[in-house]
Amino acid sequence: DIQMTQSPSSLSSSVGDRVTVTCRASQRIGIYLNWYQQSPGKAPKLLIYSASNLQSGVPSRFSGSGSGTDFTLTISSLQPEDFATYYCQQSYSTPFTFGQGTRLDNK
Amino acid sequence: QPQVQESGPGLVKPSETLSLTCSVSGVSFTSGNYYWDWIRQSPGKGLEWIGSVHYSGTTYYNPSLESRVIISIDTSKNQFSLKLSSVAAADTAVYYCARATIPAAGGPVMYSWFAPWGQGTLVTVSS
Fold first, then answer.
1. Chain A residues with beta carbon closer than 8 angstroms to that of B64
2. Do the Cβ atoms of A97 and B49 come within 8 Å?
3. Over the stretch A48-94, which tens digit does the pLDDT of each residue have?
4. Helix/strand/coil percentages in chain A, nearest 5
5. Rounded Cα–Cα distance for residues A92 and B1 (Å)
6. Can you give the pLDDT at residue B32?
7. Does pLDDT of B44 surpass 90?
8. In degrees to the nearest 10, what's the CA dihedral of B37, B40, B41, B44?
9. Predicted local confidence at residue A14, as pLDDT
10. Given an 8 Å threshold on Cβ–Cβ distance, is B47 in contact with A98?
11. Chain A residues with beta carbon closer than 8 angstroms to that of B46
12. Rounded Cα–Cα distance for residues B119 and A34 (Å)
């Protein structure tokens, strides 16, 4: 199985901050990396697919980059509704695997 | 807007079979662009992909669960289902169904992404 490792595991930031979350795959996965946001008690929500494609309806302050083994999710200016947990997921090969999550909370 | 919704018992006894159904609306269930997936989330193991089914009947399973899992599809009802046999406490989790979109119609489930997700249903394994 491909292991996905996110860093940091948790992050404290303030509204208006620029935030970056990193995801590393244990082997090369091309661009087949997706990002999800999960608020407490809710299902994950797709933000970015295939490394850099913004899902319809997702604010443009979210962006993704990377290929191969290293990927980044960036929030350009944090909004109150962005405090949540973020997960990366590889779809390069089955079994699909997720990172352990990055919890973003309000400083 | 496409929607998916899980249903099924919230409590299952150890060694029995967990059965869940996902109802799909607002989207062509038989489009070749989609697979239909089950994913679970537990505090101990995080998010775990269980498997996928295509309307054609093609399935993919997580090898860690494959010996106990069956995912099936009923196109007449716009539903797909999960059966997990011989459950134990470690199978206690929130179970989600989700649509997986693939970049090439009719292709394999690889390179896909999950959206939308159902709200999730907590299944507890306990006697």
1. 95
2. yes
3. 999 999 999 999 999 999 999 999 999 999 999 999 999 999 999 99
4. 5, 50, 50
5. 27
6. 87
7. no
8. -130
9. 97
10. yes
11. 98, 100-101
12. 19
